[in-house]
Amino acid sequence: KRRSSQEIKEAQDVELSELKDPQKDSDRVKKGKEEWLITIGICTHLGCVPIGGAGEYKGWFCPCHGSVYDTSARIRKGPAPKNLAVPPYEFISKNKIKIG
Question: pTM, whole model, 2 decimals?
Answer without folding.
Answer: 0.93
